Amino acid sequence: MTAPSTTTTTAPATTSADTVVPVRFDFAAALKDSLKSAAIAFGLSIPILAFKTDQSGGDIFLTPRWGLVAIFVSIIFGVRLLQHAFMATKAYRLATPDPHQATEAVHAEPNAFQKVSRFGIPFFLGIAIGFPFLIYLIQGGMNESRYWVDLGILILTYVMLGWGLNIVVGLAGLLDLGYVAFYAVGAYSYALLSTTFGLSFWICLPVAGILAAFWGIILGFPVLRLRGDYLAIVTLAFGEIVRLVLINWVDLTNGGAGISSIPRATFFGLPFTAGEGGFADFFGIEYHGMQRMIFLYYLILALALLTNFVTMRLRKLPVGRAWEALREDEIACRSLGINTTNTKLTAFAIGAMFGGFAGSFFAVRQGFVSPESFNFLESAIILAIVVLGGMGSQIGVAIGAVVLVGGPEVLRNLGFLTAIFGAGFDPNEYRLLLFGAGMVAMMVWRPRGLISERQPSVFLKERKAISSAHVKEGHG
Amino acid sequence: MRWLQDPILDVQHLTMRFGGLVAINDLSFQAGRGDITALIGPNGAGKTTVFNCITGFYKPTEGMIALRKPDGSHMLLERLPGFSINWKAKVARTFQNIRLFSGMTVLENLLVAQHNSLMIASGFTFLGVLGIGGYRKAESDAIERAKYWLDKIRLTDRADDPAGDLPYGAQRRLEIARAMCTDPLLLCLDEPAAGLNPRESHELNALLLSIRKDHATSILLIEHDMSVVMEISDHVVVLDYGTKISDGSPSEIRSDPRVIAAYLGVADEEVEQVASEIGA
Ligand SMILES: Nc1ncnc2c1ncn2[C@@H]1O[C@H](COP(=O)(O)OP(=O)(O)O)[C@@H](O)[C@H]1O
Ligand SMILES: [Mg+2]
């Protein structure tokens, strides 16, 4: 049994360094191609640009505009030439998937941009933990850092939602477009339980999670028989149904007006108020409005890390492996005795539970919930975070959340650009344009998300990352 | 007729229709315990459909498929839900077009196959998440079992590579090992030698014979390669257009004129003539 082993088992994975052939910038070829593009542009512009019809009385004149044509043609020539120059750079080649990745699985080593550095995770974690202090130091004051801590809370909420949805979409491969429904269930659970029965946040939090998981199972049961596009459409519809119920069940939810004056977060019973018996009073420090914000920041950080911890743990348990196996091949799972319906339901329920936790955090932060916070756009953003970050990758999802939620906020702070583009320039208006451009860029360079490699859940000798060429997205 | 005395699988009057097409027509056969039973027939004869009925992917239109446990009790496979055929009745299978979890490592593939026992060990996840109970021990046992099979299929070196990265022959062997990790009483192999070179095919024979020798696993095998069939099987069932045309030991099958006719594509009337020509 041992003698002939070597020949069949050695299919060495060639590293990407070997397969990248150094490309020289072939100026003559680039020039030729750019001239060709310019010629095509010239041909196209003759009927479109070259003549303008002017009416003067009853007569029509053709005004030639060769100057304009020349400008256009030279722009196209220049841009094409620049494109060639750019594509010959090293950076471009590193960021472009190796052509082998699509065709030959054997060569599909993840390239440099697909790998997370070993220091990436401690670095991000350190930033997240020290964030309020860093901002305090940078901004030089409590009040000045309010905006940034608030933004941090927002981003972390989406990181948590992304991680929750990642269980369903990234691991189990079930496309869920109605995830916001569970976020809503969590938020309304806390809002109703605390305003009606006066229960504290720490009691409501697990209850909200359990209720969301329960609704995950109820909605999941009929839905999970469907696959692919059908599953996506029905989950989308369920998300909308939950929102419509919240609007129309006025007796319970107070309809579109929402529920206000939800009790604010307390520090294990100590309210963040100025007076006697408050948090500041108890610890003998000076009261400041930011204390509550910083507490909320660490609360959502803890919840997000809990989500991450549980997910990482589940991946190493049989249920997590079954989710990933389900994403890879459902029929093979069934032949191995895996109850596919139950396995999908657990993914749905656990994902929903974390959505419920995040929802009750949302309610305690805002002090107000209304159905409008839980529309389809919200689901779409969470899904975009998961897909952009890299399905199944925890760190990828975190980066996706920072980019998609934090990115638009950066635009607000580009006021100095008015100096260049004139007073009327508002970078915020270009938000969707940039978003679209970013999406197109992703489709070209990172179709499997920012971090597309998969880490195996167990290994015998050596933990090797698995290239996205092998990993499937699931069909249902 | 050993297989009639102690059959592990008893198929009675199995019929499967797809609309007007009769894929299996009143098929009855037995597979003996401890035997390698080959199911052969031309393309489209309905062999894969028989497997799909046995392993619960199709519900047969008519008929009965009984699995006899070593203690003599019966399980009616056509009544079990698809996923419990593997777990409760202990029937495992492979697929004609390989179905591995290609984005998971070779080792992970073998662990997914032990899902149900590991699931119990992890207290249906509740204890496992909290880190209490005997999951750690169960997992290392599962890895030991995986190692045993990796050794047997000579893939220990590639345990941490994605299954999709393996060469074709190794993927076939891995699929068999994965099925064996579920500890089956009956292993159904759908064309395991398809696409293998002669040497790999020879190794496959050795693997199947050692499975039969070392484990309480009977094998039901679909195969086109007659040399494989003749070399390792104890009992051959021949299908043509969904109907059983012959059933017996390999030597009986080899000389059965109806089998020859089916393989050569001769009309029924000419069977006698063909038989006399080959001197059977
Ligand atoms: N799901 C299905 N729906 C319709 N026809 C099917 C289905 N599965 C198999 N068949 C038909 O049944 C016949 C037997 O197919 P199969 O069992 O795959 O043959 P083989 O002996 O080559 O494995 C073929 O004519 C095939 O087209
Ligand atoms: Mg077949």
Description of the structure:
- Chain B: Keywords: Amino-acid transport, ATP-binding, Nucleotide-binding, Transport.
- Chain B: Belongs to the ABC transporter superfamily.
- Chain B: This is ABC transporter ATP-binding protein.
- Chain B: One of its GO terms (biological process) is D-alanine transmembrane transport.
- The complex is a heterodimer of chains A (476) and B (280).
- Chain A has 476 residues and is mainly α.
- Helices cover 64% and strands 3% of the residues of chain A.
- In chain A, strands 1-2 form a two-stranded antiparallel sheet. Chain A has a two-stranded antiparallel ribbon with strand order 3-4.
- In chain A, a hairpin with a 2-residue loop joins strand 1 (51-56) and strand 2 (59-64).
- Chain A is globular and about 80 Å long.
- The model of chain A is unreliable at 1-21, 100-108 and 110-114 (pLDDT under 50).
- By secondary structure, chain B is an alpha/beta fold.
- Chain B has two domains: 1-90 and 184-249, Rossmann fold; 100-182, no CATH class.
- In chain B, strand 4 (62-68) and strand 5 (74-76) form a beta hairpin.
- In chain B, helix 4 runs parallel beside helix 8, helix 7 (135-152) packs across helix 8 and helix 12 (257-264) packs across helix 13 (271-278).
Core attributes:
heterodimer; A: 476 residues; 2 domains; two-stranded antiparallel ribbon; 4 strands; disordered N terminus; B: 280 residues; alpha/beta; Rossmann fold; 13 helices; binds adenosine-5'-diphosphate; binds magnesium ion
Q: Helix segment count of chain B?
A: 13
Give the mean pLDDT of chain A: 81
Low-confidence stretches of chain B: none
Query: Can you tell me the CATH class of the largest domain in chain B?
Result: Alpha Beta
Provide the fold topology.
The complex is a heterodimer of chains A (about 475) and B (about 280).
Chain A: H1 5-9, H2 16-19, H3 27-48, E1 51-56, E2 59-64, H4 66-87, H5 90-95, H6 99-103, H7 120-139, H8 142-171, H9 180-197, H10 201-223, H11 228-248, H12 250-253, E3 266-267, E4 270-271, H13 279-283, H14 290-315, H15 318-328, H16 330-335, H17 340-366, H18 376-389, H19 394-412, H20 418-421, H21 431-445
Antiparallel strand pairs in A: 1-2, 3-4
Helix pairs in contact in A: 3-4, 7-8, 8-14, 8-17, 8-18, 8-19, 9-10, 9-11, 9-17, 10-17, 14-15, 14-17, 15-17, 18-19
Chain B: H1 2-5, E1 7-18, E2 21-32, E3 36-40, H2 47-54, E4 62-68, E5 74-76, H3 84-87, E6 91-93, H4 106-112, H5 115-121, H6 126-130, H7 135-152, H8 168-180, E7 186-190, H9 198-214, E8 218-222, H10 226-232, E9 235-240, E10 243-248, H11 250-254, H12 257-264, H13 271-278
Parallel strand pairs in B: 3-8, 3-9, 6-7, 7-8
Antiparallel strand pairs in B: 1-2, 1-4, 4-5, 9-10
